[in-house]
Automatic annotation (TrEMBL):
Keywords: FAD, Flavoprotein, Oxidoreductase. InterPro entries: Acyl-CoA_DH_CS, Acyl-CoA_Oxase/DH_mid-dom, Acyl-CoA_Oxase/DH_mid-dom_sf, AcylCo_DH-like_C, AcylCo_DH/oxidase_C, AcylCoA_DH/ox_N, AcylCoA_DH/ox_N_sf, AcylCoA_DH/oxidase_NM_dom_sf. Residues 12-123 form the Acyl-CoA dehydrogenase/oxidase N-terminal domain. This is Acyl-CoA dehydrogenase family protein. Coiled coil: none annotated. It comes from Nocardia jiangxiensis. The lineage of its organism: Bacteria, Bacillati, Actinomycetota, Actinomycetes, Mycobacteriales. Residues 237-384 form the Acyl-CoA dehydrogenase/oxidase C-terminal domain.
Amino acid sequence: MTDYLSTGALPDEYAQLAKTVRDFTRSVVAPVAAEHDANHTFPYEVIAGMAELGLFGLPFPEQYGGQGGDYFALCLALEELAKADQSVAITLEAGVSLGAMPVYRFGNEEQKQEWLPQLTSGKALAAFGLTEPGAGSDAGGTRTTALEDGADWVINGSKQFITNSGTDITKLVTVTAVTGVKDGGKKEISTILVPTSTPGFTAEPAYDKVGWHASDTHPLSFDDVRVPQENLLGERGRGYANFLRILDEGRIAIAALSVGAAQGCVDESVRYAKEREAFGRPIGANQAIAFKIARMEARAHTARTAYYDAAALMLSGKPFKKQASIAKLAASEAAMDNARDATQIFGGYGFMNEYAVARHYRDSKILEIGEGTTEVQLMLIAREAGL
Ligand SMILES: Cc1cc2nc3c(=O)[nH]c(=O)nc-3n(C[C@H](O)[C@H](O)[C@H](O)COP(=O)(O)OP(=O)(O)OC[C@H]3O[C@@H](n4cnc5c(N)ncnc54)[C@H](O)[C@@H]3O)c2cc1C
């Protein structure tokens, strides 16, 4: 990837990937999105199709079963999927960026060999267990504990709002837990791999969410969950710092997903504005509607350039924290604003759940909350600006 990419001039391999995922989205994802949304069902058959396309292995080397691509490739796939179905896109985002990536970034060779081939093939999913009832934006407020007992860790506590944590193919949850006290009295937080088959681990009943109905989200409880000390992921006491790194890059992925949602709203609105007639002409012939759509297109495009920029910095090894937060902020707001405008353009139909824009309206709100709320992004950007 070059240092800066114009959105209209993707190099061939990226353009080809985007087209493949776009075709898959149109033929496989879109036709069943409303049904899974209405029934709150996890789309196993769609996920299996994505696995077959190699999407779960996109940014990982071939030696671990990956496609040998990069993080930008993952972002392009997320953007395409989210145009039609944010639930399917977040399943990929959480599976790759939050599930497999911590193992790839911080695992030792044995852990990588054990877990990555299953995860990169899409046959198994891993979840990222950071948030707790008392630790969301303030993730350092972790209360879950992991105490050493002989050759094991014994984990007790709970996590909440954890994506992909209770599907039939979920095999692993990486959790942050307090493993001791540092000099100066601060909590020592480490990351531990917990296979979901471990006794004492429970994925509680799924949440009844406003949106993302086909995405899997559960509270988790840990009741004397015993795993070997070898399941420590990365350095002891670096769990919080390592998860923050994962969240920094995850924000670029969420920005890409948000751009897909924002663009999906534009595409639906253009189609509908040409088709729907009122007062004897298409509603798009009114400047009020055309300008609304023009503004929506501008928001999607601006947010896209922001995530392309953050991804380019990340891939070239330069600092990207601020740009990732800017991209996440701009793109999540673009998605929410475009969903609101698209719903307005669809009139009464926009308020009917079966319509894609209505689904985007319900789905997009979480984009301003998950992987760092809007306020957290503003805090990070302000801090980078020296405030
Ligand atoms: C569908 C869904 C999926 C999720 N998936 C995962 C997952 O896979 N793994 C995981 O670990 N977590 C996950 N989360 C959790 C998500 O990341 C948190 O909900 C989010 O970080 C916010 O934390 P909170 O809910 O505790 O809100 P809080 O931190 O309690 O924030 C409440 C409000 O206060 C604001 N606020 C807090 N502190 C400040 C401050 N200092 N200044 C100004 N405003 C402030 C926030 O911005 C927010 O508006 C998921 C959540 C949802 C809803």
